[in-house]
Amino acid sequence: DVKVTQSSRYLVKRTGEKVFLECVQDMDHENMFWYRQDPGLGLRLIYFSYDVKMKEKGDIPEGYSVSREKKERFSLILESASTNQTSMYLCASERGTTNSPLHFGNGTRLTVT
Amino acid sequence: GENVEQHPSTLSVQEGDSAVIKCTYSDSASNYFPWYKQELGKRPQLIIDIRSNVGEKKDQRIAVTLNKTAKHFSLHITETQPEDSAVYFCAASIWGDKIIFGKGTRLHILP
User: Fold this and answer.
1) Which of A66, A99, A100, A108 to substitute to test the interface with B, most B CBs within 10 Å?
2) Rounded to an integer, what distance in angstroms lies between the CA atom of residue B34 and that of residue B107?
3) Bridge-partner residues for A34, per DSSP?
4) Does A42 reach chain B within 8 Å, measured CB to CB?
5) What are A74-105's pLDDT values in tens digits?
6) Going along chain A, which residue ranges are E strands?
């Protein structure tokens, strides 16, 4: 069974701090994604990656960056956290073949004060 | 880019009745339409998916239909049970491209 692990379940940070959210998958999946989930707004794509050192912007990349130095690890970076980035962040991975399903991590609930 | 609209945002049905959730998509090139279920406090999980070369797919009490001409697809749950209470997300993608989600439907099964 695919396992997608996010390093923190809950995180509290101060405005202006640099924040790292880590995600690791154990099934050699090609593609990895970061979504944020907010009530009434569903799952919105921040960034995704099809390969090591590759990254593509999603629908809401502003204020975020990502890093994929190894195939199994995909990091989301908030360069200078702001209160409007308080949210649930979900990492997902996908095999990369035709139409394969996303496997999600348990999520990180980030609060920026 | 792709845009996915999902309705209704909230749905309450009596236990044993059927529930229907509808989605529309904007990009006619989309060819993959998964549905995810997210129970309270848990991660979204795939429950059923359909590809553009198929009009309908069924798995026990769950079915999905796709109308490519109208660019809409629907999730049907029959004989609803308390464990069906959750948030359901539809999504659309083009092979090899990002998966775009609808805003979700919160389904309440009433006793």
Assistant:
1) A99
2) 17
3) A47, A91
4) yes
5) 999 999 999 999 999 999 999 877 678 899 99
6) 4-6, 10-13, 19-25, 31-38, 42-49, 56-57, 64-70, 73-78, 87-94, 103-104, 108-112
